[in-house]
Amino acid sequence: MSFTPGFLGYPFLHASSPQNLAEGSINEVNSLKDVLRDIDSGEINELAVVAEGEERTTWFVWILVTCSTISGLLFGYDTGVISGALVTIGTDLGPEALSNSQKEFITSATTLGALLGGLVAGVLSDWTGRRPVLGIADIIFIGGAIAQAVCHDVWSLIGGRFLIGIGVGLAACIAPLYIQELSPTRLRGRMVVLNVVMITLGQVIAYGIGAGFFHVHGGWRWMVGLGALPAALQLIFLFFLPESPRILLRRGDTVAAHAVMTKIYAFAKPEEVDLKIKVLQLSVRRSVEITDSTTFIQRSKSMIFDPVNRRALIVGCGMQAFQQLCGFNTLMYYSATLFKEIGFNQPTAVGLIVSGTNFIFTLVALKWIDKIGRRNIMIWSAPGMVIGLTLASISFHFMTKKTGGELMDGTQYPTAWSSLVLLSMIVFVASYATGLGNVPWQQGELFSLEVRGIGTSLATATNWGGNLLIGSTYLSLMAAITPAGAFGFYAGLCFIGCIFVVGCFPETAGLSLEEVKMVFRDGFGIKKSQLLRQRKREIRAREKARREQDHGGVTELEKENERV
What is the DSSP letter of 306? Predict the structure, then answer.
């Protein structure tokens, strides 16, 4: 017999005799059938775990992810730049300065566009592939940036912001999904957070450019127009990036998928890459069977009527709603306006402190999200948001006592209370950036392949729907129930979000995209996910010990197992 011992005793065939070929084929078919059976039954399969095998990250993966995250940079820049633009437009778009309602229209136009873009992005990417949708988003970004830069009235600016919003919605949905489908399992969370890092970096750059053009007449045109440059750069890069292997396999292009996987797992042996492809093909094949035997309407209905899909949708949409209803993006849109009203001389520069905090603490998430997990990072960071918003509410209450609870532009407020407001914002933003700013964008891992486009579209649309609600009502809410009441209201919504996380959000770190759907088979899978992750760790430990034994010597892990 000419078999080389493979993973967990599954052989790799080297001999070419008919008998060996037949036995090898039977063994391989039976092993792969076991994978499919375990996927269907909700159990972790040993072969599927070991197929992940060699996952050292190559320069190819980092370059690929870096190019993809330019979408995040555009997302952050185009949502952050409006804060500085609103306080510098002045009378450039008419005889009078912008009113609060016009500011809300300008801000909300982007969000409405993003809502529509996000709603179609995932479904469109299932049809065209992930990469073409990113290219469409770049073209829209370029068009929107130019339209804003040359506009001469409020409604043309609103139109340009709406166009930018469509690009933001497409990019926000597809960039994390594309990255997830190209990333090794153990680094998937970190790779997606890298996209969020670029979002926050885009916001920092936007605030920096806003501060630089603050005293330049017509400088806001440069602020919004410069967004075309990174979009053009990514559009060029996309010609050299591969399509997602899962999309390629779904199209039946195994050769192209194998080529991409070989580049992603450059340190893996050829037989290891072959095994990865075969296991992935099984999951994709099941998704293709479902897709071929159902209509789009039926799959959309399954998001509600299929218990597994429904729970995944509740978690995905719930986390995205939490991210927006906490009120964070009001800071991104109106921070310069807010800090100007409470007495800061350089409001855009102070806003840069907030966006800088967001960027720095997103790097914390980048370091820890795969190590301590999505659920744990949320449980530890979410209470900090409640504390920050409550402190802001109290500070506004005492700061605005002499103005009847209202913020009056030009009023000299006590420096101590203004500083405390800034401190509370920093606490809130730091907590947000560590957890809630990142975790909801892991949404693609919640859905199986046949409904992943639909699921991510609905979750992204929920995000932008919440954003639209908060962004379009913020100034009105501040006027109706005072700043203290508004931030107290956001603190209450954050508290409800904390309860949702504790009761409904399972841990998915360390589970492959194909394994995550097992979590929702019975309830929201808080305990199930922990059991699956523990089972997977045990399998990996056994395989590691077996490999080390094959290379000679007894490992410490084996000694410990013998003692147990």
Answer: S
C-alpha span between 80 and 224 (Å, rounded): 10
Dihedral in degrees, nearest 10, Cα atoms 61, 66, 68, 70: 180
The count of residues in the chain is 564
Q: How far apart are CA 125 and CA 55, in angstroms?
A: 26
- pLDDT for residue 136: 94
Q: What whole-number distance in Å separates Cα of residue 369 and Cα of residue 191? A: 10
Residues contacting residue 151 through CB under 8 Å, at least 6 positions apart: 93, 157, 159, 160
Select from 512, 497, 505 the least CA-distant residue to 528: 505
Q: What percent of the chain has pLDDT over 90?
A: 25
Contact 193, 362 (CB under 8 A): yes
- Contact assessment for residue 8 and residue 47, using Cβ atoms and an 8 Å cutoff: yes
Tens of pLDDT, residue by residue over 456-467, are 999 999 998 988
Q: Could you tell me which of 563, 539, 452 has the C-alpha nearest to residue 9?
A: 539
Are the CB atoms for 539 and 545 separated by under 8 Å? no
Three-state secondary-structure class, residue 99:
coil
What's the pLDDT at 312?
94
Query: Two tokens at 279?
Result: 């296991």
Beta carbons of 126 and 447 less than 8 angstroms apart: no
To the question of pTM greater than 0.90 for the whole model, the response is no
Instruction: Tell me if 374 sits within 8 A of 189, measured CB to CB.
Output: yes
Phi, psi of 3 (to 5 degrees): -95, 140
pLDDT at 220 over 50: yes
DSSP symbol at 153: S
The tokens describing 240, both together, are 């050299």
Task: Kindly tell me the sign of the dihedral angle through the C-alpha atoms of 199, 303, 372, 537.
Answer: negative
Residue 234 has pLDDT above 50, yes or no: yes
How many CA atoms does the CB half-sphere of 311 hold within 13 Å? 17
